[in-house]
From TrEMBL:
Pfam family, one: ABC_tran
Residue ranges constituting the ABC transporter domain according to the UniProt record: 2-258
Keyword field: ATP-binding, Chloroplast, Membrane, Nucleotide-binding, Plastid, Transmembrane, Transmembrane helix, Transport
Coiled coil: none
Name the UniProt record assigns to this protein: ABC transporter domain-containing protein
PROSITE patterns given in the database record: ABC_TRANSPORTER_1 (PS00211), ABC_TRANSPORTER_2 (PS50893)
Cell location: Membrane
Entry membrane topology: Multi-pass membrane protein
Chain ranges passing through the membrane: 380-401, 416-439, 459-485, 491-518, 525-544, 584-606
């Protein structure tokens, strides 16, 4: 049972930039967007939240779902089985966001299976978790598309309605007693929308409390709602049984003059649109006086057109009537509450019981690693990617074909190849890693909001899952180049070269993860990354030796230069070209430190990321 009373919520309107458009608002002005909303929804009920765009539906849903970004700006009382919100509730509440945040390359079955493995607690065996995923698949009628990929705007996958059902399935896997849905029917045709609503109706009648924001339901969908909250500009205009809404508005003087879908009628009222609607006497009077004023004065001389003036009055009237309705409801509610007290005692105990992570760290790591691997298997198996590496290696091998070191010029040429290898492998892995966290941010936010797994398990799984393929490609590249360019003979030199390039790859990935996680914006991150890669490459000591002291420190951060130093040492030991050898141990140590340090910074950046919406 969810009960909420006099919920008010403010946001701080962000400081307007010079070219920003928050006209009329001072920097940091707070704005109340929910003005005293009261209501309740119990097990077995479906509560629909309706109102025009911008009326506060999503905000209210987020607030009730514990996803408020500024808890200090929230007032009023919200009780879940008579207990205020605690973090332990996160894993008991299902929340389906408006956007379908799913991995596009996973199939429907894989998506539900991974969610079941991560979300269902350890007291279930693996087989039971898999069975649960299959049961949900069947319950939502998704067997037919079970092995179809989810897809996205660029990749053909399941339909919009099926995608939405997958999102709902992910939430009902844990059998939540409370299920929130933000616009589950938006973007769907009326038949699919009706299917989703009847699914929610069924889920509610199986003993859950379901609360959904709905934009424009058909009249058949409307009749499936048990309760209804109507909002207008953040003010409540109705709360009660959905079936009673038309009668209520009739009693306060609003009746449709032509046959209308009740949802259209209610939305029109909340928007202040009273065409084809009878008005209560005082508003009728007001309408007449505005109409007569319209004859005498121009609209420009009064603040607002006649229609908006009447609309404002209608909204105010509705809000006043609703306040009265809710205070009457409050008195009857206290009688019902006495009856509920008995049942609530044991429910409270369940809700406030301390909950651990659903699965162990190691299980989370393995499942996330497997999921990451499956999601990106198309990239790993991509012929283009392998071709890119092989062709680059063949090109480099041809340019440095059977390179020699007999003369100073030949030696210089071969050094060029070593520098190229350091730079090349400092570039590609960085840019692949750069996009990892920004692109997965919505999924991470969604899953972390329900405490599905530890951030450290995700981080380790995500940062390690790309490594095998990068290392595999590195080995292919080095083997081709090494043989074609006829680099130093000897098994150990060959193995050390591979290890050095792999260290370069791992360090460069770390830089990519670090920039991506710190910035979380693909465009900004790639701009910064290009500057950094270029800076490190230039300061690496190949192009310039005498770097001014004030910028000399950059060379110590240049992973490409450290790799180059190690490679030259492997090729020539300390016989030639002493100026570039530097201290081998220092370079290896510097790269090893970078591998760890950049990842640590990336992890800290992710930790600091705001999870709430
Ligand atoms: N963080 C914020 N800063 C400033 N204004 C906000 C913020 N969040 C919400 N608002 C404002 O609060 C009002 C309600 O927003 P909300 O998204 O809850 O409306 P909605 O009814 O869900 O709209 P829609 O149906 O279009 O999704 C809007 O006017 C919106 O601009």
């Amino acid at each position: 049972m969810l009960q909420f009373e006099d919920v008010r919520y403010k946001v701080v309107v962000k400081k307007a930039s010079k070219w920003g458009c928050t006209f009329g608002m001072k920097a940091g002005t707070d704005k109340e967007i929910l003005h005293g909303i009261t209501g309740s929804v119990g097990a077995g009920e479906m509560l629909a939240m309706m109102g025009p765009s911008g009326s506060g539906k999503t905000t209210l849903l987020n607030v009730l779902g514990g996803r408020r970004s500024n808890p200090q700006w929230l007032t009023g009382s919200i009780l879940y089985n008579d207990v205020p919100y605690t973090k332990n509730l996160k894993r008991r509440i299902g929340f389906v966001t408006q956007d379908d945040v799913l991995f596009p390359h996973l199939t429907v079955r894989e998506t539900l299976t991974f969610s079941a493995l991560l979300r269902l607690p350890d007291r279930f065996t693996k087989d039971q978790k898999l069975q649960r995923a299959e049961a949900v698949l069947a319950q939502l009628g998704l067997q037919r598309c079970g092995d179809t990929i989810i897809g996205n705007q660029f990749l053909r996958g399941v339909s919009g309605g099926e995608r939405k059902r997958v999102c709902i399935g992910q939430e009902i896997l844990i059998n939540p007693s409370l299920l929130f849905l933000d616009e589950p029917t938006s973007g769907l045709d009326s038949t699919t929308a009706l299917r989703i609503i009847s699914l929610l109706h069924k889920l509610a009648h199986q003993g859950r409390a379901v609360m959904a924001t709905i934009h424009q339901p058909s009249s058949r969908a409307f009749h499936m709602f048990d309760k209804l909250i109507l909002l207008s500009d953040g003010y409540p205009t109705y709360f009660g049984k959905a079936k009673g809404a038309m009668t209520y508005f009739d009693t306060i003087g609003f009746t449709p003059l032509i046959p209308m879908n009740p949802a259209d009628f209610l939305l029109d009222l909340c928007s202040g649109n009273t065409n084809d609607v009878s008005l209560p006497p005082n508003l009728q009077q007001r309408k007449k006086s505005i109409a007569s004023q319209k004859q005498k004065i121009t609209p420009a001389s009064v603040p607002g057109t006649p229609m908006t003036l009447l609309g404002k009055d209608v909204k105010k009237y509705l809000a006043d009537c609703c306040e009265h309705q809710i205070s009457t409801w409050d008195r009857t509610k206290s009688l019902q509450n006495q009856k509920l007290q008995q049942n609530l005692k044991h429910l409270q105990a369940v809700v406030s019981e301390k909950q651990q992570w659903p699965t162990t760290w190691w299980d989370q790591f393995i499942i996330l690693f497997m999921r990451g691997f499956k999601e990106r298997r198309h990239e790993y198996m991509s012929l283009m990617r392998v071709l890119q590496m092989v062709l680059s290696a063949l090109l480099a091998g041809s340019l440095w074909w059977h390179s020699k070191t007999s003369t100073f010029r030949q030696l210089q040429d071969q050094e060029g190849l070593l520098f190229f290898m350091g730079v090349f492998w400092g570039y590609f892995p960085l840019f692949t890693a750069l996009f990892t966290f920004p692109l997965e941010r919505p999924i991470l936010m969604k899953e972390r909001a329900t405490d599905m797994y530890r951030l450290s398990a995700y981080f380790m799984a995500r940062t390690l899952s790309d490594l095998p393929i990068e290392i595999g490609l590195t080995i292919i590249f080095v083997v081709i180049v090494y043989l074609m360019a006829n680099l130093r003979h000897g098994f150990l030199s060959f193995i050390y070269t591979i290890l050095a390039v792999c260290l370069d790859v791992t360090a460069s990935q770390g830089v990519g993860f670090c920039i991506g996680a710190a910035i979380m914006d693909v465009q900004k991150a790639s701009t910064l990354a290009s500057v950094i890669v270029l800076g490190f490459m230039l300061a690496g000591g190949y192009f310039i030796q005498n770097i001014p002291p004030f910028i000399g420190w950059v060379k110590y951060l240049s992973f490409q230069a450290h790799t180059y130093k190690i490679l030259t040492y492997i090729q020539y030991e300390d016989a030639v070209n002493v100026r570039l050898h530097g201290d081998l141990a220092n370079s290896v140590l510097a790269l090893a430190v970078m591998v760890v340090a950049y990842r640590a910074i990336a992890y800290i950046s992710l930790r600091r990321m705001k999870i709430s919406v």
